[in-house]
Write a structure and sequence with these properties.
The complex is a heterodimer of chains A (574) and B (578).
Chain A: H1 12-44, H2 49-98, H3 101-107, H4 109-116, H5 118-134, H6 136-151, H7 157-200, H8 202-207, H9 211-236, H10 239-263, H11 269-310, E1 331-338, E2 348-355, E3 360-365, H12 371-378, E4 386-391, E5 394-395, H13 401-407, E6 408-412, E7 420-421, H14 422-427, H15 435-444, H16 448-453, E8 461-462, H17 471-485, E9 489-493, H18 501-514, E10 518-523, H19 526-529, E11 534-539, E12 542-546, H20 548-554, H21 556-569
Parallel strand pairs in A: 3-10, 3-11, 6-9, 9-10
Antiparallel strand pairs in A: 1-2, 1-4, 4-5, 7-8, 11-12
Helix pairs in contact in A: 1-2, 1-6, 1-11, 2-5, 5-11, 6-7, 6-11, 7-9, 7-10, 7-11, 10-11, 15-17, 20-21
Chain B: H1 2-17, H2 20-49, H3 59-106, H4 111-115, H5 119-161, H6 166-172, H7 174-210, H8 212-217, H9 221-246, H10 249-274, H11 279-320, E1 342-349, E2 358-365, E3 370-374, H12 381-388, E4 396-401, E5 404-405, H13 411-416, E6 418-422, E7 430-431, H14 432-436, H15 445-454, H16 458-461, E8 471-472, H17 480-494, E9 498-502, H18 510-524, E10 528-532, E11 544-549, E12 552-557, H19 559-565, H20 568-575
The chains are: A alpha/beta (574), B alpha/beta (578).
Chain lengths: 574, 578
């Protein structure tokens, strides 16, 4: 949490003003017992009514001034908390957008989203409360001690014993419960997951008659959760009673010591009452503090998680050592191997091939054979574990990331469409594209027809994840988005899978006519790639490379795929 | 609304009823804890009255009072702790019971119920709303109870000390409640704005973080951050207002309390000069005046929480009390291992009353028949599967397995005879082993491996970091095709008498699919199978092909018969345009 303090920068003054005004208010409150003592010693005992009236009015004025100070403090506290979290949220969001893809995989998107949303809200609440109360309470406690010291040095010893003991108790309870709350949260997350799976998997669970097992599993986790909650509750429930008992024992000691001192004529009755009031104030503040600590503790845990995100080491983001190696080809894979982190086996191993500018390259292979991995390496999304990928003669890692991204346009099987309009989705590909360009791209991608059918044409709304378009329509929109980018290299990663053959053929024809980019076409259909200049056949991460005719001769895998489809689909791609 | 709330309160009470002895103990303990805690100022006041001045302190009477303070302080702390612990026990156990019942219900709810609601909503009812019940209802209740006890006891004690000052406290205190209420009413709108803008922000974060890769490939990060900052600014603006204005409450009520304190000090001092109250009595009274106000300040918060919790309880009980799947009829048949003769006669079905889907569907399939269902999207293919599995029941007509109407068969024994693979794969969070062994509790690792091998899943599974012991989930990063292979392995292990493959191989490449087909052909032998497929090539060799359109079977026959008809099927086959 302290590491997060740097986000208070710029709000530093406010963040100081908030507790400062709180302290001013608290100081006023510390004067109250002195006035009460004065009322007893100089008002009641000498029976001076006028003086009592005067002192009572002073009490009300103190209250009014306190109100003004306190509202000022509340404003500054709210302001500091909100602006700090605003900055923090911005920083965290920026961090997430700058994570490398392997870093993103490692962190997992759902946890990242929690950190950006609910964890942030909790931290905001925590900062606000800390500035408002958490700093005020120790100040009142300390102030009460000092005032007690001034009233009577000897008796104030009780304060100086009681307060450290109280602090110790509070810290001990905090130290024990913070990790426990973290555990509770994790177990709740597990429950959440189990419930969600029970719902999303209802058909499978019922079909396999596994309902009882599902319920049993949930119950087990639920019992664990309840167990931890009870244990944690037992410890945190100690806080209030223990602080109360210490303060009350201190009161007993105080009255007795006070009595001895009064008897000896060293102290007035009013002074004893003042000391007693100071102890009561300490008690009230500590109870407030103890209740808050639970909330603040939770927010600390959230803060820690945010901090972990902000400090996440991302090896891939660090500049790779520049590589002096050169290649004479437009694109070259040189002995490239890659394994996803945590995976012992390579997803692709020892792949080498070259590509000329303007070539069309087909990639085909079974599920999990490494097709998408190859694309990820080509775009520089992941760095090869071994070997080098060259682009225009230079190793990929020597490029500036943004510059590199501008050179590749990608459309994937799972076409992602963002909330907005058809147009806004295409503008992602090219910011300042004209309407003509947009229409042209839609035409090439065979998307013009269904977009025009919509009432608002290119201004039609796209809902979140494009769910108001069919899978095939989404794929065509995402192809249009890739086309409009007009990048040097166009990659279609199984982007035709939801299209029928006629549409696919038409789309490819248009692409070849209007687009001179080097194309990579990943497909499961042999028919989609037979005409490519070069075909890469992947099987278990190993590649065989050649033209259609060459591969038919030398690659048993390719022959098998081709024949299977030829036979099955009666596809003659003549 | 209020009536509903009352009834859901009653329902929560019924859950708490299980712990009624704990509850009674807790109430008694809280009350006595409060009583003891409040008795301390009385004793302290009495002790102060023995401190009269120099040389006039009555130690023989002072000392016993001091000892009593110490003993009571300890006793009240112990009682408080026990009461808190018991409250926790009631709260957490009740929530556990509620959640268990809810999950149990989810597993016997009709599939239609779950299909028609968002899973996120149900999850949040079972997790978040249940928490709110424990926080707001149970903890709120105990807070309210000890608050009321405090008010009553303080009131009595104050009256005993001074009947003249007490009315000042009792009349002025509600002022702070009024102020709190006034502020809450005026800030409500700001909180609403805040939460709706937060919703927008969450949706934006969700969309852009989930699709980071695509955004990056278009170098769209800068724009995303810009939009994010705009939303973030708005959220911060609304938050500031909501937080600040609501935070005026505490200082304002504190001001009211300070004024009361001053009034009590003033009146008390005048009475003390007149001699009708002692200095110790005044000290004691002052500390009560503070305590008397405290529960009042808390009450409005507790009531808001309480109402919120009741609303949450209502939402949760909607699930717990939902009508479950119809139980098996009395005397329903235990199917055992079915032969697999299936007949569908005159079946009509629709999901909603106003849109007819399946009308007068008829089909007879002998044991071992391979039936394929084809047709354009939305023609009712998957619905037939839903009816066969009894995820939904037919509106009229009947489906029978081995000559028995499936509604007269014990549901579980019916479903046990089916092996199903759906296009929408579902991976449970757990090891690969657990995922494959889904249908069977006790199978050997060898059998699991064998099933994976015949599903052609073995080669990618062994590449996972921990092989069959790798914990996988929907988000683990398996490709759609790999997920389908695992689902197919489940079936390979189960070897049921009837197979249902609903687009089971849609995400698997043709080559792997061919291999799986060979394996399927082996297990399909002698078993009845239903295959819904997108690729017509995959169903060419079926015994019966049902061509569906708009909920009706429009053509029926094998591939060559249908082609010879030159009808819808032939058109479909030649265009493959769907």
């Amino acid at each position: 949490m302290t590491k997060l303090l740097k986000y208070m920068k710029g709000n530093r003054i406010i963040a100081v003003l908030a507790p400062l005004f709180k302290m001013l208010e608290a100081t006023l409150e510390l004067i109250v017992p002195l006035i009460i003592a004065e009322i007893v010693d100089s008002g009641i005992i000498p029976k001076n009514k006028d003086y009592v009236i005067k002192l009572s009015i002073q009490l009300i004025i103190l209250g009014a001034v306190g109100l003004i100070f306190s509202i000022t403090a509340q404003y500054f506290a709210a302001k500091a908390a909100v602006s700090t979290v605003k900055k923090l949220r911005h920083a965290a969001y920026e961090k997430v957008t700058s994570l490398s893809f392997s870093g993103l995989d490692k962190a997992g998107t759902s946890t990242l989203i929690t950190r950006l949303t609910s964890d942030m809200d909790s931290v905001q609440n925590g900062i606000n409360l800390t500035l408002r109360i958490l700093l005020r309470s120790p100040f009142v406690v300390l102030g009460a001690c000092i005032m007690a010291f001034r009233v009577d040095r000897h008796t104030s010893l009780i304060f100086f014993i009681a307060v450290p003991v109280l602090s110790l108790i509070i810290f001990a309870v905090m130290a024990v419960t913070i990790p426990l709350y973290k555990k509770i949260r994790e177990t709740v997350d597990k429950s959440l997951l189990l419930v969600r799976e029970n719902i999303t998997g209802v058909r499978v669970i019922r079909a396999f008659c596994s309902e009882e097992k599902a319920v049993e599993e949930f119950k087990e986790n639920n019992d664990i959760l309840t167990g931890i909650q009870l244990f944690t509750g037992r410890i945190s429930a100690l806080l209030n009673p223990m602080t109360c008992v210490i303060v009350n024992l201190a009161i007993a000691a105080l009255i007795y010591t006070g009595a001895v001192r009064v008897n000896k004529g060293l102290l007035t009755t009013g002074a004893v009452i003042a000391l007693y009031n100071y102890l009561s104030q300490i008690l009230v503040e500590l109870i407030k503090l103890a209740n808050l600590i639970v909330t603040v503790t939770k927010s600390f845990a959230c803060g820690k998680r945010i901090n972990a995100l902000l400090e996440m080491q991302d090896e891939e983001n660090e500049a790779a050592p520049a590589d002096d190696e050169k290649s004479n080809s437009y694109i070259e894979f040189k002995n490239v191997s890659f394994s996803y982190s945590g995976n012992s086996e390579n997803s692709v191993s020892d792949i080498s091939f070259t590509v000329n500018k303007g070539d069309r390259i087909g990639i085909i292979g079974s599920t999990g054979s490494g097709k998408t991995t190859l694309i990820n390496l080509l775009c520089g999304y992941y760095r090869p574990t071994r070997g080098t990928v060259f682009f225009k003669g230079i190793p990929l890692q020597n490029y500036d990331e943004k510059e590199l991204r501008n050179c590749f346009a990608l459309a994937e099987q799972k076409a992602v469409i963002f909330k907005g309009t058809v147009k806004s989705n295409l503008l992602l590909g090219k910011k300042n594209a004209s309407d003509e360009e947009i229409i042209k791209a839609l035409e090439i991608a065979q998307a013009a027809d269904f977009v025009n059918e919509k009432e608002n044409g290119t201004d039609s709304i796209t809902e979140q994840s494009g769910r108001n378009f069919s899978g095939g329509q989404r794929q065509r929109l995402s192809i249009a988005r890739a086309v409009i980018k007009n990048a040097e290299v166009l990659i279609l990663d199984d982007a035709f899978s939801a299209l029928d053959y006629a549409t696919e053929a038409q789309l490819k024809k248009e692409l070849d006519k209007h687009c001179d980019a080097t194309q990579f076409i990943v497909s499961q259909r042999a028919g989609s790639i037979v005409n490519c200049d070069k075909i890469i056949v992947l099987e278990d991460g190993l590649a065989e490379i050649g033209t259609h005719d060459e591969l038919l001769k030398k690659s048993s895998v390719y022959k098998e795929i081709y024949c299977a489809q030829f036979e099955q689909e009666d596809v003659v791609n003549a | 609304m209020l009536k509903n709330n009352n009834s859901s309160f009653g329902k929560v009470l019924r859950y708490i009823g299980k712990y009624k002895y704990l509850l009674i103990t807790s109430l008694i303990l809280s009350a006595s804890g409060v009583l003891l805690a409040l008795y301390i100022p009385v004793l302290a006041g009495r002790a102060i009255d023995f401190i009269i001045g120099e040389g006039k302190v009555d130690f023989s009477r002072l000392t016993p009072v001091i000892i009593r303070i110490a003993v009571i302080a300890i006793a009240s702390a112990v009682i408080q702790w026990i009461a808190n612990t018991i409250n926790n026990r009631i709260a957490f156990n009740t929530v556990r019971d509620l959640r268990n019942d809810a999950v149990k219900k989810v597993n016997i709810l009709p599939v239609a119920y779950l299909d028609s609601r968002s899973s996120g909503d149900i999850v949040s009812r079972i997790i978040a709303d249940a928490d709110q019940i424990s926080d707001g209802l149970i903890m709120g209740f105990s807070q309210l109870f000890s608050g009321i006890v405090t008010v009553v006891i303080t009131y009595v004690l104050m009256l005993r000390i001074s009947p003249k000052i007490t009315p000042v406290v009792v009349i002025l205190t509600p002022m702070s409640i009024l102020i709190a209420k006034f502020i809450a009413k005026n800030t409500h709108n700001m909180f609403k704005l805040q939460s709706s803008e937060r919703g927008t922000q969450t949706a934006f974060i969700d969309e852009t973080v989930t699709n980071r890769k695509i955004i990056s490939s278009y170098n769209g990060e800068t724009d995303a951050i810009k939009t994010f900052d705009e939303i973030n600014d708005r959220v911060a603006g609304y938050s500031l207002r909501a937080i600040f204005f609501s935070s005026i409450t505490n200082p304002s009520t504190r001001f009211v309390n300070n004024t009361i304190y001053a009034a009590v000090a003033f009146m008390g001092a005048l009475l003390a000069i007149g001699g009708s109250i002692t200095v110790g009595g005044l000290t004691c009274f002052l500390s009560y005046a503070g305590q008397f106000a405290k529960p009042f300040n808390e009450i409005s918060g507790v009531i808001a929480e309480f109402q919120n919790a009741l609303a949450c309880a209502e939402r949760l009980f909607e699930i717990i009390e939902a009508e479950p799947e119809a139980p098996d009829k009395a005397g329903a048949l235990e199917l055992g291992r079915a032969e697999g003769n299936i007949s569908i006669s005159n079946v009509c079905f629709s999901y909603t009353k106003d849109r007819k889907l399946i009308e007068d569907l008829n089909l007879t399939a002998e044991k071992g028949t391979k039936i394929a269902i084809v047709g354009p999207t939305g023609c009712g293919k998957t619905t037939v599967i839903n009816l066969l599995m009894r995820f939904y029941d037919v509106d009229s007509g009947s489906i029978s397995v081995d000559l028995t109407d499936i509604r007269d068969i014990k549901l579980k024994s019916l479903r046990k005879n089916y092996g199903m693979v759906l296009q929408e794969t579902w991976i449970k969070t757990g090891t690969v082993k657990e995922n494959i062994a889904m249908g069977l509790p006790e199978v050997s690792f060898e059998q699991i491996k064998e099933a994976a091998v015949s599903a052609h899943a073995h080669s990618f599974i062994k590449k996972l970091p921990e092989g069959y012991d790798t914990v996988i989930s929907e988000e683990y990063g398996l490709s759609q095709g790999q997920k389908q292979l695992i689902c197919i392995a489940r079936i390979m292990l189960l070897m049921p008498s009837i197979l249902i493959l609903d687009e089971a191989t849609s995400s698997i490449d043709v080559r792997t699919e061919l291999k799986i087909r060979a394996a399927f052909d082996r297990i399909v032998k002698g078993r009845t199978s239903f295959i819904v497929a997108h690729r017509l090539s995959t169903i060419k060799n079926s015994d019966i092909i049902l061509v569906m359109n708009n909920g009706k079977i429009i053509e029926q026959g094998n591939h060559s018969e249908l082609m010879a008809k030159h009808g819808f099927y032939e058109k479909l086959y030649n265009s493959r345009n769907y």
